[in-house]
Amino acid sequence: MAQQEQERGARAVVIGGGPDALRAAATLAHAGRSVLLLQTGPGASGLRQPDLPVDTGRFQVEPGSRSDVEAVLGSLVDAPEAHHGLTLGGRLVRLPMSRFQAQRLLPIEQATTVGRSWARTRLRNEAAELIGGGQEERTYRDWVVRRMGEPAWHHLYRGYAERRWGAACDELSVSVARIHHTGPDEGTFQVVGGGAGEALAHAASVVEASGEIRSDVSVRQLRVDGGKVVAVETDDDEVVLDDGQLWLATDPFTASSWLGDAVPDGFHVDAQRLRLLPRVQVMIRGPVDGLPHTVHVLDEGAPYYRLVTPYGLEQAAVFHATFASPERVPTDSALVHRFVESAGAIGLGEFDEEGARVEVLDAWEPCWLEGTHARLRRVQMRYRDLGILAVGRGGAFAPLDPAEEIAYVSTLAGVEDPDQRELHRVHASPPVSQADLRSRITRFIER
Fold this sequence. Notes:
16 helices
């Protein structure tokens, strides 16, 4: 096989361990390239449960790009209207909540303190917009405290943020808040008409029409010669690149282990801090009638941060949790039991352990810490020298939805020698807007 690969060459080699790698490969195939996808996970998608939606299952398509997205995913339909809510202490409220509902979430003493502090921060920020005055914001905690006040951060945001994004609020970058709290997504959302499984099957067929997919691949090394990656060594084979260029839909930490001594120690130091954390999604049958499409869970003891009642699944919810490492993810049965027990304890309803299904995405949630922008820029500079193009959710190190992933790959594929730092700034970096000073506690979160 190795000799055959050397003779034929692979015009585009994509490596990754999840559905973003498959979508990247399908996008390149749609652009007219012959593609070899080295999928490090099971099946073409890297998923055990490809028919379960990842994240919320909904996304938005930019005007003019719908045909490209449908070419990769299949036919799209407008998603049903979705409502969002949060739950705390047995109370479930829809977002945006009223000030009265916000006050009822907490005991009276805490609610009074939160309300007064929030009022003071709003007045201060409104004055700043009129007369000027800035304040440095480096962490997620800085962002929340400046807009909502210290008590709101402590009682409402702190525990949720740490469970969702996998780090203490004093370590999380302010970029996390700018991505997820600044401004609602306006317009219509889409879903794939045949469901999540159909979308992945369609993407696989696009790749296989002109290329190849290998699953459960174990990559040993990215071989570098003359400063460029020239081959991918796996446990079973060696894939020689025909142009020294490689498409990576994986996190920098994993890539650094494959590059080894071919890159300086500084690269490994930066990559060590650029990790994507495991996301666990557990589908459980239960009483979802009356629940909003997405429920953010603020209860401190809950083992998950949200549940989604997605399009195409009847009487079922998908619970989402983030873990610090794959080694810390419990067994499937333990996860299901904990989630069902917690759902009953916090008043979400009596769910049934029987028939539950578990999906573990080993590297899915970007852990944005202080200094991530600088580290990511240095990694992207080294990638460009090596002939590596970083794509997908893992490569971009950003919580891109499927349509955003496709647009990102299409942009990189359309430029002969792309400046990945600049394209990342335009397409994946969090926005900075003075308007986010008007963010309100009654909306809690936007994405």
